[in-house]
Amino acid sequence: MPQNTILKITQVKSSIGYAPKAKRTMIALGLKRIHHSIEKPDTPELRGMLRVVDHLVKVVKL
Asked: How far apart are alpha carbons 62 and 55 in whole angstroms?
């Protein structure tokens, strides 16, 4: 994973009703509402967080 790769992460589903770990991960990512997007560098730590919430977000490589 090259460090200059940027990932655009968009919340596509609400975290209501999901495990507390998924909710905390969404907050840690900075996602607050549906259709909210953020851009972050591609790191192993970020990939691990995305694995926890892969059912709630859409990820696009920029």
From this structure: 20
Please enumerate in sequence order all residues whose Cβ is within 8 A of that of 54, keeping only pairs 6 or more positions apart, or say none: none
Kindly list the structural domains of the chain, giving each domain's residue range(s) and its CATH number in brackets, ordered by start. Answer: 6-61 (3.30.1390.20)
Full-model pTM? 0.88
**61 within 8 A of 7, measured Cβ to Cβ:** yes
Residues with Cβ within 8 Å of residue 43, at least 6 apart in sequence: 1, 3
pLDDT confidence tier of residue 4, bands split at 50, 70 and 90: confident
